[in-house]
Specification:
Elements (H helix, E strand, L loop, with lengths): L1 E2 L5 H12 L9 E2 L9 E2 L10
Parallel strand pairs: 1-2
Antiparallel strand pairs: 1-3
Length: about 50
């Protein structure tokens, strides 16, 4: 996860939980100077679906 303000980490995490649940996924939060299209947060995902 890339954020333009690490000071808002708690707020970002609260919104994340609203959309993705309280999963204990492994991840990192990286503070960056700016993001594309003036976004405040950018999240990168890798999805996996087991075919059984």
């Amino acid at each position: 996860m890339f954020v333009t303000s690490v000071e808002k980490a708690e707020e970002v995490n609260e919104v994340y939980v609203q959309y993705f649940g309280d999963s204990k996924s492994t991840g990192v939060m990286v503070s960056v100077k700016e993001l594309s299209k003036n976004a405040l947060v950018e999240i990168e995902f890798i999805a996996f679906r087991s075919i059984a």
